[in-house]
Specification:
- It contains six helices and no strands.
- The chain is mostly helical.
- Helix 2 runs antiparallel to helix 4.
- The longest helix has 21 residues.
- It is globular.
Length: 116
């Protein structure tokens, strides 16, 4: 199933059902979900640790399944946090992109990775 075949609310609902079936609400405070997201992001980073730019393409090819799983783990924690604490991810994303567009105008930011 492609990304476009599901919406964020469907994914949040799936995560909610999964967690409620396992009685995990007690383990999913805002702090614990934030720690979980950070941990999973670190596991994604670990795949690329000590790899040169030249090795990156090979890692992306050879570790595709592992990378996919770590991305899914990160998404799980994002969806669970948003679901449990009532954040509208689409609205949050749209607002942040608008703010970024104002802060990082093409004229100021094109070809640069400096924080403005």
């Amino acid at each position: 199933m492609a990304d476009v075949d599901r919406n964020i609310e469907e994914l949040k609902s799936k995560v909610k059902e999964f967690c409620e079936d396992r009685d995990w609400d007690q383990y999913h405070s805002a702090k614990d979900l934030s720690i979980g997201l950070s941990t999973e992001a670190a596991e994604l980073l670990e795949i690329f640790r000590f790899r040169s730019e030249a090795e990156e393409a090979e890692v992306l090819q050879k570790s595709r399944v592992e990378i996919s799983e770590e991305l899914a783990d990160c998404l799980f924690f994002i969806l669970r946090f948003a679901q449990k604490y009532n954040f509208d991810l689409d609205e949050s994303f749209q607002n942040k992109m608008k703010k970024n567009a104002e802060r990082y105008t093409v004229e100021k930011a094109k070809g640069s990775n400096e924080k403005l």
